[in-house]
Each structure stands twice: as C-alpha cells, then as structure tokens.
Design brief:
Helix 2 runs parallel beside helix 3 and helix 10 packs across helix 11. The longest helix has 20 residues. The protein is about 45% helix and about 10% strand. It is globular. It has two domains: about 160 residues, Metal-dependent hydrolases (TIM Barrel); about 35 residues, Urease, subunit C, domain 1 (Roll), CATH 2.30.40.10. It is of the alpha/beta class and about 240 residues long. A four-stranded parallel β-sheet has the order 1-2-3-4, sandwiched between helices.
Length: about 240
C-alpha cells in the first residue's frame, strides 16, 4: 500500500477517535507504520527478527503487537499432527468432514509438496522468537488467531491452541492468559467493563476443571461458561 494512503487512513481514524490496526509481514513496513502513528500491529513481523529500534518505538508509543501464531502454523500443523483428528476438544469445534479434509492423506501430501512450506516454517519460527522479544521488551502484546479466515484456522480450537503456542514461545501461562484478557480489553478500549476479575466488571467467566497455570492445555477443560453473570449452555462444557 502506498504510504500516503495508510497515513491518510491513520490520520482520519485518529480524528474520529478510532484506533488503527495494520496487517504486517516485513520489519521495514512495521517500522514505517509505527512511525506514522498506527496503534496495533496485527500479525507478527516475520521476514526477520525485530530489532531494538522497532521495540523501543512500539513501547514508547504504546503500540500493541498481536502475534497471531495461528496464521503461519495453520499452514502445516494439521498435516504434521494427524492425531489431532481424535482430539475430543477439536472434535467439538470441527465437523468430521473438516477434520478429514485437514488431516487426511491428501492434505498431508499437499503440505509436503507446498513450495512455500520452508517459508511458512521460517515465518513461524520468527513468529515465536519475535513474540518473546516483544514481550520481554515491554511491548503490549495482545491476542488473536485469524480463526475462521481459512478452514485450518478452526474457531474455538485455534484460540486455545494459540495460548499453547504462546507458552511454547517462552511466555508463562499467566502471561499468555493476561495477553488474551486484560491486554486485549485495553486494546479494544473496554477495560473498564471486562478483561479482569474485578468487582464491578462484567461477570464473564470460563470455569475450568484444571489449573491452566500448571498446564496451559487445561484451558480446554471447560466446566462452565458464564456471561454477564448467567451460566450459558455450551456444547463444549462437560460436567
């Protein structure tokens, strides 16, 4: 995109009191966008590792960074993990037909012969490293998955798997959960009503049968879901 266009978008949005998020891939683009006032970098910088110049600028300007590890991992993860097809949690998020499409022999062969497979895996490796670098530098790290954009980014499963990948990237379970709750509420400007377990805020709760601080995969052990102080029937909940 011509920088003149996105600068005009940023300026007009800010005049209207709106934050601006930009999809990025290249470090150079990320630096330009941050310098021109963007509020959120959606997706990781993937062409190379982030440098101190970008990290310092993002921290100084309060720019949020949403790593969306799912974007790149979804290009090959199901082909490498056909056992996911029998994962009870995933089975409740995806139809049998979708699971066959994602984990079958044809899908694996397609991934194995993808000319961009090495690129996707390199991008994902940079995703993980840049997430840790950004977090450790004090950048505000949010949470997202792009779930639903393509079939292999399965809504419901992708979010929990994203938390797992964030922990694999070097964050603690509490840090990953905080990115997805408290920090995301701040990013969206709704932190006064949600995002933390605080008296006076919305009673939006996911009740678990395991401690996610012991194992982040315990976020999948959903016992009950509450929204606005009322229990919500859930196909995923198992009591």
């Amino acid at each position: 995109m011509d920088p003149a266009i996105y600068r005009a978008v940023i300026d007009e949005a800010h005049r209207r009191g709106l934050r601006v998020a930009a999809h990025v891939y290249y470090l150079a683009d990320a630096k330009s966008l941050v310098a021109d006032g963007v509020d959120v970098l959606a997706h990781s910088v993937r062409d190379q590792l982030v440098d101190q110049q970008l990290l310092s600028a993002m921290k100084q300007r309060g720019v949020y960074y949403i790593p969306t590890l799912t974007v790149d991992s979804s290009s090959f993860a199901f082909a490498e993990h056909p056992e996911w097809k029998t994962d009870p949690f995933l089975q409740k998020a995806a139809s049998p037909e979708l699971l066959d499409m994602l984990t079958g022999d044809a899908a694996r062969q397609k991934v194995e012969h993808d000319p961009n497979l090495v690129l996707h895996k390199g991008d994902f490796a940079n995703d993980e490293k840049n997430l840790k670098l950004a977090y450790d530098a004090g950048v505000k790290v949010g949470f997202g998955t792009d779930s639903g954009a393509i079939p292999s980014r399965v809504p419901g499963f992708a979010e929990h798997h994203e938390l797992e990948m964030m922990v694999q990237s070097g964050l603690t379970s509490m840090q990953a959960i905080t990115c997805a709750t408290k920090t995301n509420a701040e990013l969206l400007g709704i932190e006064t009503t949600t995002g933390t377990l605080t008296v006076g805020k919305q009673a939006d709760l996911i009740v678990l049968d395991g401690d996610p601080l012991d194992d982040i995969r315990n976020t999948q052990k959903i016992a009950a879901v509450w929204h606005g102080g009322r229990e919500v029937p859930s196909a995923v909940a198992s009591k």
